[in-house]
Amino acid sequence: PALLDEAAREISEKTGSKVVGHVCDVRDADSIDAMMDAIWTHGPLTGLLNNAAANFIAPTKTLSPRAFRAITSTVMDGSFQVTLAAGKRWIEQGIPGSVVSNLVTWVWTGSAYVVPSAMSKSAIHAMTMSLAVEWGKYGIRVNTIAPGEIPTEGMSKRIKPGDEAGARTK
User: Fold this and answer.
1) What letters, b where the CB count within 10 A reaches 16 and e where it falls short, cover 19-44?
2) d(CA 156, CA 152)
3) Which pTM does this prediction carry?
4) Angle at 168 (CA atoms; ends 111, 61), nearest 5 degrees
5) Could you read off the pLDDT of 133-161 as tens digits, one per residue?
6) Each residue of 130-164: b (16+ CB within 10 Å) or e?
7) Contact (Cβ atoms closer than 8 angstroms) between residue 36 and residue 81
8) CA distance 57 to 66
9) 13-56: per-residue pLDDT in tens?
10) Phi/psi-derived region of residue 137, left when phi > 0, alpha when psi is between -120 and 50, beta in every other case
11) What does the alpha-carbon distance between residue 130 and residue 80 come to, in Å, rounded to a whole number?
């Protein structure tokens, strides 16, 4: 929480807006509901950015069921549960809202060693298309972005060890 409080303070100072941090386990629906209740005490949330990510860079054949679930519960389940918690409140209160979910380009291209993450991000893409149709009538916009790889040394070491930073994007 200390790092979260520090980030909230820094953003508040730079933007002049009040920023309040909330701790939540996105794999736990009760934790999400408690967070949403806490947010709503300050006023309704108007926008949600789903940026949950998790992955083990490993050959798929080596992943255990527990490893697979650790990734999918964070990325897919977490994004769905947070979106649902916000959406239910917006619909019940007649408040328009906006959801943007961060995808990966692997949704369309595939990539080695990221199967559980790619599967989860594909599910978020399907959720987004379905909710855009279902929730549009409530004034809730649901969209995705997939900015692609950001060529950093850390990313290159994890995705394809031995490549120079950004080699995959060249």
Assistant:
1) eeeeebebbebeebbbbbeebeeeee
2) 6
3) 0.87
4) 30
5) 999 999 999 999 998 777 776 666 666 66
6) ebeeebeeeebebebeeeebeeeeebbeebeeeee
7) no
8) 15
9) 999 998 989 999 999 999 999 999 999 998 999 999 999 888 87
10) alpha
11) 12
Helices 65-72 + 115-135 axis angle, to 10: 30
Residue type, 45: L
Residue range 84-96, pLDDT digits in tens: 999 999 999 999 9
Structure tokens at 62: 């080596």
Of the candidates 55, 145, 63, the one whose C-alpha atom is nearest the C-alpha of residue 103 is 145
